[in-house]
Design brief:
This protein is mainly α and 122 residues long. It has 6 helices and no strands.
């Protein structure tokens, strides 16, 4: 990635990136979600594999956050302000494992091996 692009998307250097990050943070806090909760395991097999490698407690916490967010959304409500202040929307739990899975997938492809998983239609 070029240095211009890095500086363009870095919230510390770009005002618009900082405003965007703040808006995303506000919306995630309202429902008690983290940014990594937005990844859909049905979108990519790499995401599904990364989710399978995570500890059970982390996956259970993710599922509880998603259920709470759906419940609040159906009720047209937000978390109370005191709980919103406690939320940490950008504390990631999936990025490291996802990067590892993608790196392994690229390595297998470079070596000419078959993929560990293939998408099949039900």
């Amino acid at each position: 990635m070029s240095s211009f692009l890095k500086s363009f998307i870095d919230p510390k250097k770009n005002f618009l990136a900082r405003m965007h990050m703040k808006a995303i943070s506000t919306r995630l806090r309202r429902y008690g979600l983290r940014y990594d909760d937005l990844y859909d395991q049905y979108y990519s097999m790499d995401i599904k594999e990364a989710m399978n490698r995570l500890p059970r407690e982390v996956v259970d916490a993710r599922n509880q956050r998603l259920k709470r967010a759906m419940d609040l959304s159906m009720k047209h409500e937000y978390l109370p302000k005191d709980l919103q202040a406690m939320q940490t929307p950008f504390r990631g739990y999936l990025q490291d494992m996802l990067a590892l899975v993608e790196r392994e997938s690229k390595e297998r492809e470079a070596l000419g091996a078959l993929p560990l998983y293939q998408r099949t239609l039900p």
